[in-house]
Design goal:
Elements (H helix, E strand, L loop, with lengths): L6 E5 L3 H12 L3 E5 L2 H9 L2 E5 L4 E4 L6 E2 L10 E4 L6 H8 L8 E4 L6 H8 L4 E6 L4 E5 L2 E4 L5 E4 L8 H6 L4 E4 L2 H12 L1 H8 L3 H5 L2 H20 L15 H6 L2 H11 L9 H7 L10 H10 L5 H15 L6 H9 L2
Parallel strand pairs: 1-2, 1-6, 2-5, 3-10, 6-7, 7-8, 11-12
Antiparallel strand pairs: 3-4, 8-11, 9-10
Helix pairs in contact: 3-4, 7-9, 7-12, 7-14, 9-13, 9-15, 13-14
């Protein structure tokens, strides 16, 4: 393993941050992860293990200087990756602002649309870059993080990121720089509209998507979003094997058609679940306001409504207080009344 003089700091190292950090460590990068003391305690008893649906597996013993709890560790960073939950974005920016050197790229690898803007407001001297994580990561056991779906990292085109690209390549986790990151993020959000559906279902992603009634709920949320994106003149981009605007059509198709086409379009590990489901299990607030809630905000900015996505937001907030599993038929019936 080669020694890196390029220092990468991951702020908010939970499931996504620990997975990305573990992959980068496997590629020889110099990585410091900043997170909660609860996670630091996990690594005092367990190694960091990262695996994926294609069979990749690696373990790293994290020293107390490799996983830390203070933002001060970002002072010597050449690159900062922010992977906190969306509700903690402003707090993350305020914590990092005194330490990150001017010009150092700070990449938001978070769900939603507006996190990079919030980070930039909280740390005005920083070089904040919007990014996107397309895949799902689940903590399967203490310290073990598993990538259950396919896809590669993306970020807005920024020359300051170019020195980082070889390290992501060595890690087998390529980072693609895009000039159309707003369209990329909205296209990813269209896929993430399934997060509340999966969380409400209480079953793994593959099992949920095998049931047409759940897919019809997702298709309704996606169609509503695509209509609003069209009104706002925000284009979408192709992130899967199917053009984005055809995804709701596939979701609405009979099971035999969906299963045949989906196998060619998207790889999903049988154990994969949404991060929203994981948040519910941990008793944490979910990110529904930064996923389906973004659609509701877009609708309001256009002087209209997004009743399907609004209903999913309401159901998830109810779920946070009183969790239950929704049968596919029951959920579809409620959403159709929205």
């Amino acid at each position: 393993m080669s020694k890196s003089s390029y220092r990468i700091v991951i702020f908010g190292a939970g499931s996504i941050g620990c997975y990305v950090g573990g992959r980068l460590l496997s590629g020889g990068a110099d990585v410091t992860m900043i997170g909660r003391s609860k996670m630091q305690a996990v690594f005092s008893d367990h190694p960091l293990k990262v695996t994926d649906y294609e069979g990749f597996s690696a373990e790293h013993t994290l020293t107390d200087t490799r996983y830390v709890t203070s933002a001060e560790a970002a002072a010597n960073a050449d690159l900062v990756l922010v992977t906190v939950k969306s509700a903690a974005t402003r707090e993350a920016g305020e914590s990092l602002a005194p330490f990150v050197k001017p010009g150092v790229p700070v990449v938001s690898l978070q769900n939603g649309i507006s996190n990079a803007t919030q980070l930039q407001e909280a740390m005005p001297d920083a070089n904040v870059v919007a990014g996107m994580v397309p895949f799902n990561v689940l903590q399967q056991a203490p310290g073990h993080f598993h990538q259950g779906t396919e896809g590669h990292l993306m970020a807005a085109s920024n020359t300051a990121l170019e020195p980082a690209l070889p390290w992501f390549g060595k890690a087998g986790l390529p980072l693609e720089l895009r000039p159309d990151i707003e369209s990329v993020m909205w296209s990813k959000l269209l896929l993430n509209l399934n997060n509340p559906v999966n969380a409400l279902s209480g079953v793994p992603l593959l099992e949920e998507l095998s049931q047409r009634e759940y897919r019809l709920v997702l298709a309704m949320a996606q169609k509503e979003t695509l209509r609003l994106l069209g009104q706002a003149d925000i284009p979408t981009v192709k992130l899967t094997g199917l053009p984005t605007r055809l995804i709701p059509v596939l979701m609405s198709s009979p099971n035999w058609i969906f299963s045949r086409v989906a196998k060619q379009m998207l790889t999903i590990d049988p154990v994969a679940r949404s991060s929203m489901w994981e948040d519910l299990q941990a008793g944490r607030p979910t990110e529904v306001d930064w996923i389906n809630g973004e659609v509701v905000k877009l609708a309001r900015s256009l002087g209209t409504e997004a009743p399907v996505n609004q209903k999913l937001v309401e159901l998830m907030h109810q779920q946070e207080k009183d969790p239950k599993s929704w049968a596919a038929e029951s959920l579809l019936k409620v959403i159709r009344k929205a």
